[in-house]
């Protein structure tokens, strides 16, 4: 059994929120660089060049990668052999977010009452927290910070159980045609299939954290998205999306939930194991 004071988690959350608002994950950056080499249009190549220069400036000057410094989602994986002590872990996480946003001059974008006065909380909290338990004596934290230009492009569709892969492909293409430009391409796309409606949406966001090599179907879907010709910044070109990942989960015999989570080219993700 291992004892862990939750205030330590506040420190890690604060550091991660700062770092991933300034600096892209190495895998994210490499995917964008590889895609830039495949872009054939002059305007597309110019957009990629400006994006890469902007990333470098943000890291060097410690300025945000995007003016929308997003809403923070935290995915916690807590080992069952860890004894948490101190303040509640949700409170510790929000303390970390609050410290990062109020001390780094990041934009505070969270409103307390979503359907009422919509008054800003002025510290970018509360954040979204997903928690699961696993074996062992470690705590793994994954953070995804997502602006709402791309979050607003999220979609869920409850397919009948007879739906085919082609049906899902058409759903994806229709969504990217409609909302892809507003989501600041080139895009990262996460797809969640199965579970319940809410769980499919969670899977789609988790898929954005999983940058492992794509399988055959994922590669096919990415090629189909790129065939739309929307291109970098929506100005036309070969690369509308740089990456696509699917996560699945068992579901009920009577349905097939499918959620699509689109992220802009600034995929702000980070993780730490304590």
Describe this entry's structure for a reader.
With 274 residues, this protein is α/β, with parallel strands linked by helices. It has 2 domains: 1-23 and 65-146, no CATH class; 147-274, 60s Ribosomal Protein L30, Chain: A. It is built from 8 helices and 10 strands. Strands 4-2-5-10 form a 4-stranded mixed sheet. Strands 6-9-7-8 form a 4-stranded mixed sheet. α1 packs parallel to α4. The two termini are 14 Å apart.
List the helices and strands and how they pair.
Blueprint lengths: L1 E4 H17 L3 H13 L3 H20 L9 E9 L2 E4 L3 H15 L24 E7 L4 E8 L1 H4 L3 E5 L5 H15 L7 E9 L1 H11 L8 H11 L14 E11 L4 E8 L4 E6 L1
Parallel strand pairs: 1-3, 2-4, 7-8
Antiparallel strand pairs: 2-5, 5-10, 6-9, 7-9
Helix pairs in contact: 1-4, 2-3
